[in-house]
UniProtKB/TrEMBL annotation:
Compartment(s): Cell membrane
Name of the protein: Plasma membrane fusion protein PRM1
Family, similarity comment: Belongs to the PRM1 family.
Organismal lineage: Eukaryota, Fungi, Dikarya, Basidiomycota, Agaricomycotina
Keywords: Cell membrane, Conjugation, Glycoprotein, Membrane, Transmembrane, Transmembrane helix
Highest taxon of source: Eukaryota
Organism whose genome encodes this protein: Grifola frondosa
Signal peptide: none
One annotated GO biological process: plasma membrane fusion involved in cytogamy
Length: 184
């Protein structure tokens, strides 16, 4: 008993026949590749190469192709302008750095001047409080020594009034006392 395969003309088989006739080259390729799963491969090819699916595939493919062409075209432009952009960013960062440095210098100079004025004020207060009496005492002592020296000179001038020895005695007094008081 030999069994023959018979093909019934139902709706599924008629659709496969219609699709196979629409894409004969694909069906020939599917039949050569796999004999066991021919029907599955045929359905896959019908699905992939169906007009709306093929249109979506081609739109996506050409979209990706356009993007790749744009990336290839943008490469040299990007390389050319990246150096200019780096230079302008560097110049801008130098301007910012110099502006910050100038501002910091001005503010630190103002702060340093204020601190120095405060330190001078405190130093003057301490110096006057601790050593103020020295200035008063020194001034009084210097005035007294100058008055004493002037008094001696006046006494010698009065005592030797125009005599020959007045000048040598005045020189002796200047040498003995005057040279010491002129340095104080």
């Amino acid at each position: 008993m030999e069994s023959e395969e018979s093909l019934a003309f139902d709706a599924n088989n008629l659709m496969i026949l219609q699709a196979s006739s629409a894409h004969p080259l694909l069906m020939k390729l599917a039949n050569k590749l796999s004999h066991r799963s021919t029907q599955h491969l045929q359905l896959f090819f019908h699905y992939v190469f169906h007009s709306p699916a093929l249109a979506c595939f081609l739109i996506g493919f050409f979209g990706l192709l356009c993007i790749e062409l744009q990336l290839i075209a943008i490469g040299p432009l990007s390389h050319k302008y990246s150096q200019q952009a780096a230079a302008s960013v560097s110049d801008f960062s130098n301007v910012i750095a110099s502006s910050i440095n100038a501002s910091m210098y001005n503010r630190s100079a103002t702060y340093a001047n204020a601190v120095n004025a405060r330190v001078d004020s405190v130093q003057s207060t301490i110096t006057d409080g601790m050593f103020g009496w020295v200035n008063g005492t020194t001034t009084t002592l210097n005035d007294m020594i100058n008055t004493f020296y002037t008094g001696i000179q006046t006494a010698v001038s009065t005592g030797f009034n125009g005599m020959v020895l007045e000048s040598p005695v005045q020189e002796f007094i200047r040498c003995l006392i005057g040279s010491k008081t002129s340095h104080v």
